[in-house]
Design a protein that fits this description.
This protein is an alpha/beta fold. The protein has a single domain, classed as NAD(P)-binding Rossmann-like Domain (Rossmann fold, 3-Layer(aba) Sandwich). It is built from 8 helices and 7 strands; from the N terminus they run E-H-E-H-E-H-E-H-E-H-E-H-H-H-E. Helix 4 links the parallel strand 4 and strand 5. Helix 4 runs parallel beside helix 5. The chain is globular. The relative contact order is 0.15. The mean pLDDT is 97. Bound molecules: nicotinamide-adenine-dinucleotide. The site of nicotinamide-adenine-dinucleotide has 28 residues, from helix 1 and helix 4. Nicotinamide-adenine-dinucleotide (NAD) binds next to helix 1 and helix 4.
Length: 251
């Protein structure tokens, strides 16, 4: 991808499945990469597994003080910021009638408030330099209803609208887009699902396979690179065709 070599990149949720694959991809592109996560143990593991990182930051994206301190650390580690992959997120599978107020608040807090807090602090740092690129993490759950994920669906729909609003106000110096993946098989899920479950899920998709973290990393790289320099405020679905037809696509 053009324009990624030497760029200073922060990836939140960087110790998880998609975040780690994205860190590897940006390192392959010659970028400087800092991973950011609230899970200290996972951060240590990821830092051991991925050689060449410029650093790792332990901070919770929902805590304004930790986010502020995190970006001070980013400034010290890389002397600025060009690209934010705003990826940290959580999900809980539970029926709507059983969602507790605490669970609702936590899901919205990480997936939507976290994107706002980190996105705003990143934009401030980018604007002290030449600007930059933010890619937020959405989901196909932002586009259509899915059973048992009402809080998650609502949080991701919020991220799509937040992305459009950020793009309006942060241009022309900062581009902002959102990636909306469907079913991505992370190493954790790969261990969790039986081969039969994976076959059943993939057979519903026009492309007849589940996505990989590397598929999403490629989209992040494209959206952060100069090859997408006329694109901002947009949502990019990467789902193997899952929601292309809705009910009409069911055989
Ligand atoms: N895997 C999928 O099928 C899929 C599909 C669509 C969207 N997504 C989104 O992709 C993103 C990454 O998901 P993943 O599948 O790699 O999950 P994952 O659980 O493997 O990784 C998420 C990472 O975020 C970190 N994190 C969670 N809460 C945090 C917080 N408060 N502060 C800082 N870090 C925090 C976790 O410690 C973890 O390392 C999420 O936003 C998720 O909603 C995933």
């Amino acid at each position: 991808m053009q324009g990624l070599a030497g760029k200073r990149v922060v990836i939140t949720g960087g110790a998880g499945g998609i975040g780690m694959a994205t860190a590897r991809r940006f390192l392959d592109e010659g970028s400087q990469v800092v991973i950011w996560d609230h899970d200290e143990h996972a951060l240590t593991g990821a830092s051991d597994e991925i050689p060449g990182l410029s650093g790792s930051i332990r901070a919770d994206v929902t805590d304004p003080e930790e986010v502020k301190a995190g970006f001070a650390e980013v400034g010290a580690l890389m002397n600025g910021l060009d690209i934010l992959i705003n990826n940290a997120g959580i999900s809980i599978r539970h029926p709507f009638l059983e969602i507790t107020p605490e669970e609702w608040r936590r899901v919205i807090d990480v997936n939507l408030n976290g994107i706002f807090l980190v996105g705003r602090a990143a934009a401030e740092l980018m604007l002290t330099g030449d600007g930059g690129v933010i890619v937020n993490m959405g989901s196909t759950n932002a586009m259509t209803g899915y059973h048992y994920y009402a809080d998650y669906n609502a949080s991701k729909a919020g991220v799509v609208e937040l992305t459009r609003s950020m793009a309006l106000e942060l241009g022309p110096k900062i581009r902002v887009n959102v990636a909306c993946p469907g079913f991505i098989l992370t190493p954790m899920q790969d261990a969790e699902y039986t081969p039969d479950m994976k076959t059943a899920f993939s057979s519903r998709l026009p492309l007849d396979r589940l996505g990989s973290p590397e598929d999403v990393a490629s989209l992040f790289a494209f959206l952060a690179s100069d090859e997408s320099s006329f694109i901002t405020g947009q949502c990019f679905i990467i789902d193997g065709g899952e929601i292309a037809g809705g009910l009409a696509s069911q055989r």
